[in-house]
Design a protein that fits this description.
The chain is an all-alpha fold. The protein has a domain of about 45 residues. It contains 18 helices and no strands. The termini are far apart.
């Protein structure tokens, strides 16, 4: 009887081994089809694997890759959700979902994914910088600048060599918005030390100086930025605002109008132009620009300032 039981066990083990080998062979075949850019066939093959061998995280991640190449967003999201149903802490699936949400401007969902990823990996992990950079960018996009600053400041201070240009850019942007100009200048100086021609850093340094009401220094930074990129719309707009704050309305208007020509979608430029026109006593034209600022999305991005200006000047 014992001998018969051992025969059954051995037969089962052989059957399991053979099935596992068949599953591996099918999976490898699907991977090879993917590598040869035959994505539809690869997807069919991995579905066969799942049907015959059962579901795994790796199989669903491979399905997601196939759907991605086929530009099937719904299919990709479904595969990623299936992977997370098997393992809710699957960082690869969370990362892909976050990137999808980020590219679709669904920022709140992307933030949730990146926050979960960062809770799962140690601070010393080499991928931490990437996820911190992406999460801080999302906080800046959604005007959660205190969160962006708090997320990055200690990390960059503890190991300044670990911070990258994008992380330092996000740090400086959030610091400027919350009035931490010394911290912003620290981050921007590191960027400009490595790359003196970094136009975004030069423009942000100008914003730092504006925040400290040093408009001559701000204009000097915008001038330098435009030496490298003469058609940088943000440099033109910000230089125009600095001229406005100095009472130089002619140059302010010229610069801001140039900025709008270069980038008609920048709602802040219409707001700045309206401020100049109000100062020049041209309220009717100012009100038209305030309406354009609203149409370009100022309120959603920056709050109710333009609505208040309309109430004060256009009613």
């Amino acid at each position: 009887m014992k001998h018969y039981c051992w025969e059954i066990v051995i037969a089962l083990l052989i059957s399991i081994t053979v099935q596992a080998q068949q599953c591996d062979s099918l999976y490898i075949a699907s991977l090879k089809l993917y590598d040869s850019e035959n994505y539809n066939a690869s997807l069919e093959a991995i579905n066969t694997v799942i049907q015959k061998c059962g579901n795994t995280v790796d199989y669903q991640l491979h399905k997601a890759k196939c759907f991605s190449e086929l530009k099937d967003t719904k299919g990709k999201l479904g595969a990623l959700n299936a992977a997370l149903a098997l393992d809710s802490n699957c960082i690869a699936a969370l990362s892909e979902k976050a990137a999808m949400y980020m590219s679709a401007d669904i920022y709140s969902s992307a933030i949730k994914c990146y926050k979960k990823i960062l809770s799962l990996i140690p601070a010393t992990d080499t991928t931490t910088r990437l996820y911190l950079t992406n999460l801080s960018a999302l906080y800046v996009y959604t005007n959660q600048n205190n969160k962006a600053f708090d997320l990055l400041w200690d990390y960059c201070q503890k190991d300044s060599s670990a911070s990258n240009e994008y992380m330092l850019t996000n740090l400086s942007a959030s610091a400027i918005y919350i009035g931490k100009y010394a911290e912003a200048e620290w981050a921007l100086s590191k960027i400009l030390t490595d790359n003196p021609a970094n136009v975004k850093a030069l423009v942000n340094m100008g914003l730092c100086k504006e925040g400290q009401k040093d408009y001559d220094a701000a204009i000097a930074y915008y001038d330098k930025a435009m030496l490298y990129v003469p058609d940088d719309a943000y440099a033109w707009n910000n230089r125009g605002y600095a001229y406005y704050m100095q009472g130089n309305y002619k140059d302010a208007l010229d610069n801001i109008e140039k900025s709008i020509t270069l980038d008609p979608s920048n709602s802040y430029a219409y707001r700045n132009k309206a401020l100049v026109l109000i100062a020049m006593g041209k309220k009717k034209d100012a009100c038209k620009n305030l309406e354009q600022a609203i149409e370009a999305g100022f309120t959603e991005m920056y709050g109710n300032e333009v609505l208040q200006l309309i109430e004060q000047n256009c009613r």
